[in-house]
Input
Amino acid sequence: MHFVDAKGILSAHNGMNLYRGCTHGCIYCDSRSACYGFTHAFEDIEVKRNAPELLEKALRSKRKRCMIGTGAMCDPYMHCEQQLQLTRKCLEIIHQYGFGLAIQTKSNRILRDIDLLNGIHERAKCVVQMTLTTWNEDLCRMIEPNVSSTKERVQALQMFHEAGIPTVVWLSPILPYINDTKENLEGILEYCIQAKVYGIICFDMGVTLREGSREHFYAALDRHFPGMKERYQRKYGYSYQLPSERNAQLMEYFKEICRRNGIVHDVDACFQYLRAFPEKYEQLTLF
Output
């Protein structure tokens, strides 16, 4: 890893990325795409060492409290977070200033900070988001090799529910010919029901590939699924969107199970929930 001084930390929509790059090794990772302009190896993590100072300055200057998002482009609980605790320092600032948090990860390292997340939720609002892609633990180790297993993530979701912190699952990606089966979908949805998640975000059953991420994905297919790369190339060519042939029936089943169990599954409704700051906390007090 290497350290930089960032010029800013919050995006126009109040999202932040404390790191650039990732060590989780997921074979389908879109963040590897050439369009994001990485000038260093993806696994050589860029650490924004001045992120806490920038965040405090940004929150101090806001006229209204809002939800702060993190984890969309890089996971805030990569291996280096265990040593650096950059995410924890930023959570302390969010809690101090009374802002809300929508945080996304694939790692059960997030449980280290359950005290702060609970504090944020008691004072404002906190939503924990977890990505789940496969019910099969062996397949999980192939496609997401250096991150918490599916069972470990589900256990974390259950612990957050018990703590009173709402959770949202990202059901993505579903890889054609690999995990686009009803058995896999049944397993994931059963986990979500057990964990009593608030919502599930699923755009469609499939995956997207761009220049940079496509090459990495195909190399992984050659290692783990001989002949699969050629099958993808025959079917999809260089398309950005690679929908599963089973998309229609799997999405119908997904929506039915969510409706039956009271799980919010409309994508717009899920995003609205993640962005919505509780009205009674909207007005800032002076610090």
Observations:
- The chain is about 40% helix and 15% strand.
- Residues 283-287 have pLDDT under 50 and may be disordered.
